[in-house]
Amino acid sequence: MIGRLNHVGVAVPSIEAAKKTYRDLYGVPESAITETRELPAQGVKFAFVNIANSQIELIEPLGENSPIAKFIEKNPRGGQHHICFEVQDIYVARDEMVVRGARVLNEPRIGAHGTPIIFIDPKNSDGVLIELMETPKDAHG
Amino acid sequence: MIGRLNHVGVAVPSIEAAKKTYRDLYGVPESAITETRELPAQGVKFAFVNIANSQIELIEPLGENSPIAKFIEKNPRGGQHHICFEVQDIYVARDEMVVRGARVLNEPRIGAHGTPIIFIDPKNSDGVLIELMETPKDAHG
């Protein structure tokens, strides 16, 4: 049912510092790193580092009630936060997850790629927070 | 410099249970999940879950001195452990990492895909443990 590994989410205290890591240490060209955007409703800033076949999503807390503030408190340097797989239809995926006994953490909402996403309780996935996102209609997203 | 995102490493207390998660909850066909193998010298068991464009590497501690035993102690359900990017030549990559001021954690050694790998100190990569592996000569690996 899951399709492509769309991205790995990495929570960091500073997106600008993390961009520097991928650019200066790992040699990712500046043109492959997106500008930083804000999603105030979800309490995060984000940017993508485009890798040959996938993406790293850098996320930084935004505002006092950011859902990733606690993660950064526990992991002050940052760390891997979630893995995102694509699905064809988010509502079908949501219903399948429920039928299969998983706890879906949110109603489908529009994510950083402009398509609806859900998160699955890490307790259902060996401690890993998994995001499911509907495949963007323009293919790669 | 880095190429494909070869895999995301997920440390788990039980590979067999984690295989069930990807098969029964996320619908990955049995044929896309490799058999479990042991790397006693590195203190791990591992198996791969093949995703359309990448892989999840499931790793489980093997033996008393497993380097991931502490990780499982801290994260008893399991969790995201490392991200692996491909590089063309591991020795060139190792030398570049050193020149750029990163701490390389090991001499190149043969990893689960049969090609040499190194790990970079998470302190150099925003708290993320990054593995660099030489691209397998048979392309996809």
UniProtKB/TrEMBL annotation, chains A, B:
Q: Name one Pfam family in it.
A: Glyoxalase_4
Instruction: Give one GO molecular function term.
Output: metal ion binding
- Note whether Acetylation occurs among the keywords: no
- InterPro entries in alphabetical order: Glyas_Bleomycin-R_OHBP_Dase, MeMalonyl-CoA_epimerase, MMCE/EMCE_epimerase, VOC_core
Q: Which intervals hold domain VOC?
A: 4-135
Q: Which GO terms describe its biological process?
A: L-methylmalonyl-CoA metabolic process
**CDD domains the record matches:** MMCE
List the keywords (alphabetical).
Metal-binding
Which PANTHER family would you find in this protein's record?
Answer: METHYLMALONYL-COA EPIMERASE (PTHR43048), METHYLMALONYL-COA EPIMERASE, MITOCHONDRIAL (PTHR43048:SF3)
Task: Name the family.
Answer: Belongs to the methylmalonyl-CoA epimerase family.
The name of this protein is Methylmalonyl-CoA epimerase
